[in-house]
Design goal:
mainly alpha; two-stranded antiparallel ribbon; two-stranded antiparallel sheet; transmembrane; symporter activity
C-alpha cells in the first residue's frame, strides 16, 4: 500500500513485508527516495536518455560492422521489438500480488523467495557497477577527443581525462539527490544528445557523399567473424535495456502500469529514431572502417567536432546518474537518509558515500580502459538473465493459471533461447578478453 506524506514523496510501508523461504526471511525496507511523483512523459525521457547516451556513437562500429547491412538492420529492428516486449512483461508485474514492487530484487524475491532476491540483487548491481564504470570511460574518451582536436601533444593521457570525468560525475551525483530530481536535466540531456547525434549525422552524410565507394565486407577470419557476430548480437539487446525497470517505474504516478507502458512506447518509437539514424548513416558513410567512436571518423570544422565531443561528455555525466540511482537508493535507504537533501548530515553523507562509490568506479575505469570486454561478459551473465530470461520466467510463474498452453510454450521458448544466447555471449566475451589482454596494459592510453 502506498502512503503519500503530502510533499510528493510516496513512501511504501514495506518494512513488514517479508519473503519466507526455508524458515529464512528478508525484510524489504521502505525507500528513502521520492516515488510516485513523475509523469509518464518524464519517465519516457529517463528511458530515452539511456538509449541515446554517447554509446550510440559506437553502434555503427560495434553492431553494423560485424553484422553487415541486412543482419544489422533486421537485427536492430527485432532487438527493438523483443526489448519492448520483455520490458512490458516486467512493467505489468509491478503491482503483482497486491503489492507494488519498486525494486527488481523485490519482485524476484516475492515470486521466487529469498535466494532469488539475493541473486537478483547481485546480478543487478554488478551489471550497474560495470555500466557506471563504462560511462566514466566514455566520458573520459569524449573529453580526450575534445582535447586532441586542439592539442595533440600526448601530454594528457586517457587516465587523466577519466579522473576528471569521475570527479565531475561525483559532483553531479552529490548535487542530484534522487532520480526524480533530474527533471530539468533530462531536457538538458536531450539537447546535448541532439547536438552530438546531429553533428555525427550531418558530417557522416557529408563524408559519405564525398567519399569513394566503401567496403562493407565483414572483416576478420571465419573464426573471428563467428565470435564478433555473437558479440554484436548481444550488443543489439544491451543497447535497449537498463536492468532496472522497476526502479524507474517506482518514480511514476498512478496508474503505474498504464503510465509505464506509455513511457515504454515513447522509448521504443520516438526514442529509438535518433539512435537508428546515427547508427545506419555512420555505417553507410564509412563501411567496415567505421570506428567504435563515430566522432573519430567524421571530418569537419574543429569547433563543430569540439562542440559534439563536449556535448557527449556532459550528456554522459547525466546518463550515469540514472544507472547509479539504484545504488544511491540502496545506500540512502540503508542509512536512513531522509528529509531535506541539503541538510548538513544528508549532504555530508552523499559527499562521502557517493563520492567514494564513484571514486572506486573511476579507479577501475582508469585501470582498465578496455573495460568494454568485461562489460560484454557481465552483460552476458546479468543483462540477458535480468531482462529476458527472468522477465519471461517471472511472467510465466506469476500468470501461470491465466496463460494458454501456447502462451506458456512461447515464454519457455524465450527462456531457452535467451539462455543459450547468454552462454554464447559469455564465451565470446571471454575470448575477446583473452585476445585483448595481450594488447592492452593497465592505465592504457587508448
Amino acid at each position: 500500500m502506498e502512503v503519500n506524506n503530502g510533499d510528493g514523496v510516496g513512501n511504501f510501508n514495506l518494512s513488514r513485508k517479508v519473503i519466507d523461504e526455508e524458515k529464512s526471511t528478508v525484510v524489504i525496507p521502505e525507500t528513502a527516495h521520492q516515488i510516485s511523483s513523475d509523469s509518464w512523459f518524464q519517465v519516457g525521457f529517463v528511458l530515452t536518455t539511456g538509449i541515446n547516451s554517447a554509446y550510440v556513437l559506437g553502434y555503427s562500429g560495434t553492431i553494423m560492422v560485424p553484422l553487415g547491412w541486412t543482419p544489422g538492420v533486421i537485427g536492430l529492428i527485432i532487438a527493438t521489438a523483443i526489448s519492448l516486449y520483455a520490458n512490458s512483461l516486467v512493467a505489468k508485474l509491478h503491482e503483482f500480488g497486491g503489492r507494488r514492487h519498486i525494486r527488481y530484487r523485490d519482485l524476484a524475491g516475492f515470486i521466487y523467495g529469498r535466494k532469488a532476491y539475493s541473486i537478483t540483487w547481485a546480478l543487478q548491481y554488478v551489471n550497474l557497477f560495470m555500466i557506471n564504470t563504462g560511462y566514466i570511460i566514455l566520458a573520459g574518451s569524449a573529453l580526450k577527443a575534445f582535447y586532441v582536436l586542439f592539442r595533440d601533444d600526448q601530454v594528457m593521457k586517457l587516465p587523466y581525462f577519466i579522473a576528471i570525468s569521475g570527479f565531475v560525475c561525483a559532483l553531479f551525483g552529490i548535487s542530484i539527490p534522487h532520480l526524480s530530481a533530474l527533471r530539468l536535466w533530462l531536457g538538458v540531456s536531450t539537447v546535448l544528445s541532439l547536438i552530438y547525434i546531429v553533428v555525427a549525422f550531418v558530417l557522416s552524410v557529408k563524408d559519405g557523399i564525398e567519399a569513394p565507394s566503401r567496403d562493407y565486407n565483414i572483416p576478420g577470419t571465419t573464426t573471428s567473424k563467428i565470435f564478433t557476430t555473437i558479440g554484436a548480437s548481444a550488443n543489439l539487446v544491451f543497447a535497449f535495456n537498463t536492468g532496472m525497470l522497476p526502479e524507474i517505474q517506482a518514480t511514476i504516478k498512478q496508474p503505474v502500469v498504464s503510465n509505464m507502458m506509455k513511457a515504454l512506447y515513447f522509448q521504443f518509437t520516438a526514442g529509438v529514431l535518433p539512435m537508428y539514424a546515427v547508427t545506419f548513416i555512420g555505417y553507410w558513410a564509412y563501411g567496415s572502417s567505421t570506428s567504435t567512436y563515430l566522432l573519430s571518423s567524421v571530418n569537419g570544422p574543429v569547433w563543430v567536432k569540439g562542440l559534439a565531443n563536449i556535448s557527449a561528455f556532459l550528456q554522459t555525466v547525466i546518463a550515469l546518474h540514472i544507472f547509479a540511482s539504484p545504488m544511491y537508493e540502496y545506500l540512502d535507504t540503508k542509512f536512513g537518509i531522509k528529509g531535506s537533501p541539503f541538510a548538513i548530515r544528508n549532504l555530508s553523507f552523499r559527499i562521502g558515500v557517493r563520492g567514494g562509490y564513484l571514486t572506486v568506479n573511476t579507479l577501475v575505469a582508469a585501470l582498465l580502459p578496455f573495460l568494454g570486454d568485461f562489460m560484454s561478459l557481465t552483460g552476458a551473465i546479468s543483462t540477458f538473465p535480468l531482462t529476458f530470461i527472468l522477465a519471461n520466467h517471472m511472467y510465466l510463474k506469476a500468470k501461470h493459471n491465466k496463460l494458454t498452453s501456447l502462451q506458456k510454450l512461447w515464454h519457455w521458448l524465450n527462456v531457452c533461447f535467451f539462455g543459450l544466447m547468454s552462454i554464447a555471449a559469455a564465451v565470446s566475451a571471454l575470448r575477446l578478453i583473452a585476445v585483448d589482454s595481450k594488447t592492452y596494459s593497465v592505465f592504457a592510453d587508448i
